[in-house]
Write a structure and sequence with these properties.
alpha/beta; Rossmann fold; 5-stranded parallel sheet; 3-stranded antiparallel sheet; 9 helices; about 45% helix
């Protein structure tokens, strides 16, 4: 199967993408992984991306598209893939369609992971990270530490990352609404979109998605 997973920041796309890719035996292709792999391997696209990132500028669509197309041509993706974070705008969606058409392929589904905006803000703004070990993550409401501001595992100080502040989260949501959300209507016109509630336990969300794909 060839699937695009769409949803706002904080909707749980990364978690669901990993679960779905494993259940469907297809590779999970995320934009973040593409950038890290290309930059660490020093590919021409990776070097271009690094130049823009080091200058504090957005990486152009053509670089991201090139990375995605290279990855989709790898052997493990020959039987399908799950795209997470790509496409993120109409231009990238059109480029993906062009790539698929050129290779006589098609998308099977676009899963729209829906979470209310205030829940997204609560999820992200409530995160607390340990300064001593960043793998120790808590949540002010959903997974609070035993002692306020103190890591249960090592006693380190817990803090809120600047990227997780409410103001930053709302800015990220505004970008999602203006740039990425329009691809949902783009794919609805092709009859590909199924909206899945992202609320509840991760396993419940995965089951909804698998049912929507006819794989329950």
């Amino acid at each position: 199967m060839r699937i695009v997973l769409v949803g706002p920041p904080g909707a749980g796309k990364g978690t669901q993408a990993a679960y779905l890719a494993e259940n469907l035996s297809i590779p999970h292709i995320s934009t973040g992984d593409l950038f890290r792999a290309n930059i660490s391997q020093g590919t021409p696209l990776g070097r271009q991306a690094k130049e823009f990132m080091d200058a504090g500028r957005l990486v152009p669509d053509e670089v991201t598209i090139g990375m995605a197309e290279d990855r989709m041509q790898q052997e493990d993706a020959s039987g399908g893939f799950l795209l997470d974070g790509f496409p993120r705008n109409i231009g990238q969606a059109e480029a993906l369609d062009g790539y698929l058409d050129a290779h006589e392929l098609k998308l099977d589904a676009v899963l729209d992971l829906e979470v209310p905006e205030e829940e997204v803000v609560k999820r992200i703004a409530g995160r607390r990270i340990c300064r001593t070990d960043s793998s120790h993550v808590f949540h002010a409401e959903y997974a609070p530490p035993k002692a306020d501001g103190v890591c249960d595992k090592c006693g380190g100080e817990l803090y809120q990352r600047e990227d997780d502040s409410e103001a930053t989260v709302r800015k990220r949501l505004a970008v999602y609404h203006s740039e990425t959300e329009p691809i949902i209507d783009y794919y609805k016109a092709q009859g590909l979109v199924t909206t899945i509630s992202g609320l509840g336990a991760a396993a419940e969300v995965t089951q909804r998605a698998m049912s929507a794909l006819g794989r329950d």
